[in-house]
Design a protein that fits this description.
The structure is a homodimer. Chain A is mainly alpha-helical and about 160 residues long. Chain A has one domain. In chain A, about 80% of the residues lie in helices and about 0% in strands. A two-stranded antiparallel ribbon of chain A has the order 1-2. The longest helix of chain A has about 35 residues. In chain A, about 35% of the residues are buried.
């Protein structure tokens, strides 16, 4: 029974980790390609012009690196039949989910008001804000999957200690 | 030994909950009193003009309500000598710490870039951005104490199930 619960929680974790990785990757692509205007004049707007989006980028990259590490370790454990590292899972998932939560918060916090200010001043942002919004939404979804992973790893922790 | 560990983790939790409550209360006061300009003209800037600060306010109020509930329950359990509610602690601390993390993220995400935009356009914000920054910093500290509480309640959970 305990063996079965561990096996099913492992499969759930693996699926959630793959999902997190895909969400973060798309979020990264949408954010990084978010540039408006030509490079000839000063009107060009890049995501790097805003600190909040730079922070978002940092959290996404950290999230992708952690997801890749966990995917490699999980596949390694399935092949080798090891017990995994419950402490790495517990603290890693917790820490990364907080990092992604603050990243999504920063992204939305700036984008929502930026959108309103731009609409009010009738500046044409050419979907700059919409793309930022899409990227932040994907980051939020990745945070939710990591938060679920964090609950699973908290439950898996005590059985092994 | 287990009894002792539970007692010390309970005292640590109580201190952290009181600290969280105080931090959130000061953060609320700083944010809610953040108004610049006179009410006669249109130049008045309130924190409610920005969606990110409204969201911050909501997360702070939720955090304060939860802290108060937990403080009452903790004192009730100490007096009555009960076992407490490990599941409420586990999911409550986890959920509230995520709420506070996104609130702090939204607050910083807007404030950092708002400050830069205002400095660049030489608009005098009369410390509006500094007070928002202070409020977000206090919220961030409250998030850290709640994250520590969440680790403690994850460790306390399995002993009782």
């Amino acid at each position: 029974m305990a063996q079965q619960a561990t096996a099913s929680s492992r499969i759930a974790s693996l699926i959630l980790r793959i999902l997190t990785f895909i969400l973060l990757l798309i979020s990264l692509i949408v954010l990084a390609t978010n540039t408006v205007g030509s490079s000839d004049d000063d009107s060009k707007v890049r995501f790097t012009d805003f600190y909040a989006y730079r922070y978002m980028l940092a959290t996404i990259v950290i999230g992708i690196a952690y997801s890749l590490l966990q995917l490699v370790l999980t596949i390694f454990n399935i092949v080798r039949g090891g017990d995994g590292m419950p402490f790495l899972d517990f603290f890693g998932d917790k820490f990364i989910s907080y990092v992604l939560a603050t990243g999504a918060g920063a992204g939305f916090g700036l984008t929502v008001d930026l959108k309103r200010l731009m609409d009010a001043s009738e500046v044409d942002m050419l979907n700059f804000d919409d793309k930022a919004f899409a990227s932040a939404s994907l980051l939020l979804l990745a945070f939710v999957t990591t938060a679920i992973l964090s609950i699973i790893s908290a439950y898996t922790l005590p059985k092994r200690v």
